Amino acid sequence: MARRRMVYEGKAKILYEGPEPGTLIQYFKDDATAFNAQKHDVIDGKGVLNNRISEHIMTALTGIGVPNHFIRRINMREQLIRAVEIIPIEIVVRNVAAGSLSKRLGIEEGTPLPRPIIEFYYKDDKLGDPMVTEEHIIAFNWASQQDIDDMIALALRVNDFLSGLFTGVGIRLVDFKIEAGRIWDGDYSRIIVADEISPDSCRLWDVKTGEKLDKDVFRRDLGSLTDAYTEVARRLGILPENKGNANGPKLVH
Description:
Layout: E1 6-9, E2 13-17, E3 23-28, E4 31-34, E5 39-42, H1 46-63, E6 70-73, E7 78-82, E8 85-96, H2 99-105, E9 112-122, E10 131-132, H3 134-139, H4 145-167, E11 171-185, E12 188-194, E13 202-206, H5 216-219, H6 225-235
Antiparallel strand pairs: 1-2, 2-3, 3-7, 4-5, 6-7, 8-9, 8-11, 9-10, 11-12, 11-13
Helix pairs in contact: 1-6
């Protein structure tokens, strides 16, 4: 079998050249990073869980008409995606005060926000992904005003969907991050959701207990990251209920 050409390697994923023009293969690694990769570990099974959870969410988004790069899952760690021109901006939607927002503004973690707040961060690991404004984005030609409007509209639609999805399984969507990319049809471009949506990119708290079911478990040394992500997958129906299975839960193929 011919060796696939690697296109890009990030902290949590690798992109390979896809089987057809305009496609890529996205491989989910087991690496866990925090604090701009200052903290790093390899968590067995994390990539498999994120692949399946992101597949589940992206497929559901497609079903409600939210455009994204997901085409199909290939295996337990890989999915076929559309190649997009990534906009170098992370879009963060916040519903509850937590993390850097609480630190910056002195708002107690867990405080519900009066409305969803959208923040933009410039994707640059060397700079620590600094927060930027719409003015920065337009001035430095990272995206146009129309692109920004489209990204905001996409982010709010994703927020509405995810909030309902997770509330239905007893999970509170505190905040999340998405990336966006352009796809081209001749001279016309369209903005779609890219990257992944998983517990790596969302803050998820149990509605009743406040237990963290996201990467904060790793950031703050709160226990087993695999157990937290497995619980999210189980509640979403990706894992079967573990009834007397001595080998533990298994991913549904």
